[in-house]
């Protein structure tokens, strides 16, 4: 995600799934994997990885652990990075980013 996209993203609503998707994408790029490579290593379909990264699907707890292993990190670190994006719920149950 470019700087202008990241700046714009802070001004709009972000769901927990979107925050997790951003973290997965960042970590995937950190270890130089394509979506296809990550999907293959995690025994998933590439479209599933795409859905996660776009925040259109939320992963199960099992999937968080699996992706963390493939991405050479820990589930705790993934969750900490999501929390660092500071999503907060509004009255509609959506998460807002400060």
Q: Show unreliable segments.
A: none
The sequence of SSEs as H and E is HHHHHHEE
Going by CATH, the architecture would be Orthogonal Bundle
- Tell me the CATH superfamily: lambda repressor-like DNA-binding domains
Task: Enter the CATH topology name.
Answer: 434 Repressor (Amino-terminal Domain)
Biggest sheet record: 2 strands, antiparallel
What structural category do the secondary elements indicate?
Answer: mainly alpha
Rg over alpha carbons:
13 Å
CATH class: Mainly Alpha
What is the helix tally? 6
Q: Report the principal-axis shape.
A: globular
Number of domains: 1
Average pLDDT confidence is 84
Helix proportion: 55-70%
Can you walk through the features of this model?
58% of the residues lie in helices and 6% in strands. The model has no long low-confidence stretch (mean pLDDT 84). Helix 2 (16-30) packs across helix 6 (75-84). The protein has helices spanning 3-9, 16-30, 35-41, 46-53, 61-70, 75-84, and strands at 87-89, 95-97. The protein has one domain: lambda repressor-like DNA-binding domains (434 Repressor (Amino-terminal Domain), Orthogonal Bundle). A two-stranded antiparallel sheet has the order 1-2. The radius of gyration is 13 Å and the shape is globular. The two termini are 18 Å apart. By secondary structure, the protein is mainly alpha-helical. It is built from six helices and two strands, in the order H-H-H-H-H-H-E-E. The longest helix has 15 residues, at 16-30.
